[in-house]
Amino acid sequence: MEITLSCPVKLNLTLRVLSRRPDGYHELYSLFWKKYSDERLTISQNCDEIMGDSLDVSGTEIDGENLVTKALAAARRSFGGIPALKMKLDKIFPAGSGIGAGSGNAAALLSWLADNYALSLSAGEIGKLGADVSFLAQKYEMAEARGIGEILEPVGAAPPLCWLLAFPSWSSNTKEAYSALDEMRGRDYAPMTPMEAANEARNCVKTLAGGGRSGLLPNDFYPLLAERHGEYKTAEKIAEESGAAGWGLCGSGSAFFALYADIEAAERAGSERFAREKWIIKTHYLE
């Protein structure tokens, strides 16, 4: 038996970094939004048990250990009935883009194991793989994320909008992004409260769901990256002029997203405007 899974990715429709904790991590509020992508994970049972598990990756190169491998190791520590697996991962998204593609690969595997082998990892165990994995392994489409991203609460249906993702020629390192944000803010910075962040996000969703335009969506990392890369201002201008309902930064960067009423509008904006920018190495669309 062989099965091919579509791997999920996410947007942070809003992302507010609220405070730094004594352990060095940051409290945040974010509104996560999931769609299934064209990255594919193909799984079959490895008939040669002696060979054990195998993972073949094609497409975009991955630096370091793949999260699929880490997820499978975590699953085996929790449940001993999983057979040796032969896996093939087709990667299309650049690393360091902020859409959680690697986390989505791991989430696809964990969801399949839960459905087929009754795997039941705790939220804490999944969270050790990454906060994005915790969300992407769930069934719901949108969720409010609190804590360091591990506290999730579903919020219902997402706005009926399509995504355009524009990937720049640079990547973003999450740890470095948080350090730069701390340095920019200084010790006396007073972040918004969790309630303020939640109300802000809900207002954004209400506007988009009602057919309105939110414009630039709130993300505390965006001013930092926009200062380093003026090209983001060009992306904003393109999104506004091409009729996007909202736009912004994916996670802590580096990809830029724009939201459109239908896939035709997204593809038209991509081919006629975004793809012509030399700093954009790839555009992608999700319904």
What's the structural blueprint in terms of helices and strands?
Layout: E1 2-20, E2 26-45, E3 54-59, H1 67-78, E4 85-91, H2 101-117, H3 123-127, H4 131-136, E5 142-146, E6 151-154, E7 162-168, H5 174-185, H6 194-209, E8 215-216, H7 222-228, H8 231-241, E9 246-249, E10 256-260, H9 263-272, E11 280-286
Parallel strand pairs: 3-4, 8-9
Antiparallel strand pairs: 1-2, 2-4, 2-5, 5-6, 7-10, 7-11, 9-10
Helix pairs in contact: 1-2
Protein architecture, described:
The chain is of the alpha+beta class and 287 residues long. It folds into two domains: 2-154, 2-Layer Sandwich (Ribosomal Protein S5, domain 2); 162-286, GHMP kinase, C-terminal domain (Alpha-Beta Plaits), CATH 3.30.70.890. It contains nine helices and eleven strands. The protein has helices at residues 67-78, 101-117, 123-127, 131-136, 174-185, 194-209, 222-228, 231-241, 263-272, and strands at 2-20, 26-45, 54-59, 85-91, 142-146, 151-154, 162-168, 215-216, 246-249, 256-260, 280-286. Strands 1, 2, 3, 4, 5 and 6 form a six-stranded mixed β-sheet that branches. A five-stranded mixed β-sheet has the order 8-9-10-7-11, with helices on one face. Strand 9 (246-249) and strand 10 (256-260) form a beta hairpin. Helix 1 (67-78) runs parallel beside helix 2. The longest helix is centred in the middle third of the chain and has 17 residues, at 101-117. The chain is globular and about 55 Å long. The protein starts with a strand and ends with a strand. 39% of the residues are buried. The mean pLDDT is 93.
